[in-house]
Amino acid sequence: MPVLDELYQELIIDHGRNPRNFGKLKNATHIKEGYNPLCGDKITIYISEKQGVIDDISFDGEGCAISMASASLMTEALKGKPVKYVDQLFADFQHCVMGQTCETKALGKLAALAGVRKFPMRVKCATLPWHTVRAILKDEKGSASSE
Ligand code: ZN
Asked: For 61, left (φ over 0), alpha (ψ -120 to 50), or beta?
């Protein structure tokens, strides 16, 4: 589906250049840094959690277009969602960028990143924001890694 591929590429370029929810969160209850040594992507995720819900989420840092676009799309997807929803969505997303098939309906715009499965090095860029969020919500010590 070349038309869909093009559309998805535009979405990644757009979010990579103009990331949504970019910047520090003043009332953050959780802050964590994630680092992908293979590419040099470094992002910090800020979450304000209220009664088991991701009330607000943002990120900042520096990285390649894929990591920035993935973080941007992820913050859009997770804002206002229950914390327990994260694992399920990440599992679907991981399946999409690493597996053979992609259930685009459940993922919405996140499916735009499905193309990275052809580039194993880029999979780490796409999943870095997710690993960081999961580390936050599990209150793991130290910084998250895409490894
Ligand atoms: Zn990267």
From this structure: left
For ligand 1, the distance from its centroid to the CA atom of residue 52, given in whole angstroms, is 30
Rg (CA), the chain: 14
pLDDT tens by residue, 111-123: 999 888 888 889 9
Question: For all residues of the chain together, what is the average pLDDT?
Answer: 90
- Topology given in CATH for the domain delimited by 2-138: Sufe protein. Chain: A (3.90.1010)
Q: Given a cut of 80, is residue 1 above it in pLDDT?
A: no
Tell me the per-residue pLDDT of 77-104, one tens digit each, with 9 for 90 and over.
999 999 999 999 999 999 999 887 777 7
Mean pLDDT of 52-62: 97
For the chain, give the number of residues. 147
Cβ distance 52 to 83 under 8 Å?
A: yes
The CA 37 to ligand 1 mean position distance, Å, reads 9
Helix (H) or strand (E) holding 65: helix 65-78
Centre of ligand 1 to C-alpha 50, Å, is: 31
Alpha-carbon span 38 to 43, nearest angstrom: 14
